[in-house]
Amino acid sequence: MPDEPLxxxxxxxxxxxxxxxxxxxxxxxxxxxxxLIVAITxxxxxxxxxxxxxxxxxxxxxxxxxxxxxMRIDVRFTIQTDDDATIYVSYRGVLQNxxxxxxxxxxxxxxxxxxxxxxxxxxxxxxSEQGVDYDFYLID
Length: 140
What we know:
Elements: E1 11-21, E2 25-30, E3 33-46, E4 52-54, E5 59-65, E6 71-81, E7 86-96, E8 99-107, E9 121-128, E10 131-139
Antiparallel strand pairs: 1-3, 1-10, 2-3, 3-4, 3-5, 4-6, 5-6, 6-7, 7-8, 8-9, 9-10
């Protein structure tokens, strides 16, 4: 535990992402509430260190909606970078009034992106009829 209280989390912007999404399906009134399942059909990645596309149909978002209306997200997708590397992205988080707050992890075998394998991310996103837009940061 740090000797001083944490006043700010040091984070650097890594990339922005636009996720194209499909039509949701539902599993209603299950043991954990309602599941909203949304396919990620594609998208774009832009940033100073990572650029590319979201591989079409490489993932989705499994949203758990609690009886009290709380929403938790479980998202996975694959990035194909402009320099032909692949990066798997997975995260859990919460959705509050169309705003997502999440903690992504990254996996890759590409040497030029190996630094992502030991990094913890933070993501902030907003959903709309056009998809979901995120900004992803790494904790320093």
